[in-house]
Amino acid sequence: LLRKEFARSVDSLPLETQFASYMFAGPVWQLGDTLTSTSGQKQYQVTHGENVVNWKAKQVHEWTSDIPTVTAQWATAAPEMKTRLSKQISEQQLVWGTDWSHPLKAAMNMQPLPNVIYFMTDGSCNTANQSAIEIAEIAQQKNVRINAISMMQPQAEKPMRYLAAKTGGDFVIIDKDGGCDLQKA
Fold this sequence. Notes:
A 4-stranded antiparallel sheet has the order 4-5-6-7, with no helix packed on it. The protein has a 4-stranded mixed sheet with strand order 9-10-11-12. Strands 1-8 form a two-stranded antiparallel ribbon. Strand 9, helix 4 and strand 10 form a beta-alpha-beta unit. The chain has 5 helices and 12 strands. The chain is an alpha+beta fold. 30% of the residues lie in helices and 28% in strands.
């Protein structure tokens, strides 16, 4: 469902829209990066061009990296770009873990800053409340709005709703059939 919704989101971008994307579980990466498990599911190496970031799990919801994630470059929504990304989304390998803070921090380190972040997850984590508070504060300081999209994950509702409300964003729940329920943040 997450792949389907992500591909649908990319496909529905208006032509010429500037966007960037990150994938995450425990580690954070960009579509097209190479992910290599270096020690079971608790360590991954993300290769982006000549850059290598090593990720290690302290637990399923708490990951660290040896260097920051490579900052995504802005791309233009053009038909060929959408086709390429849709293919990469459908082929993306699954990775163990859920840690919200790293992809959101990576997005807020982009230059220029995004006006809006669409944060979509199919998982919750025991660090979600802490991450939502920390990320909302950073987003408020940088004047970045976060729209939070929860994929059938009721445990994620409160922290995602908080993240959206504190940054002026929307909160959406996607049900198992792909139905959208826009809720008051």
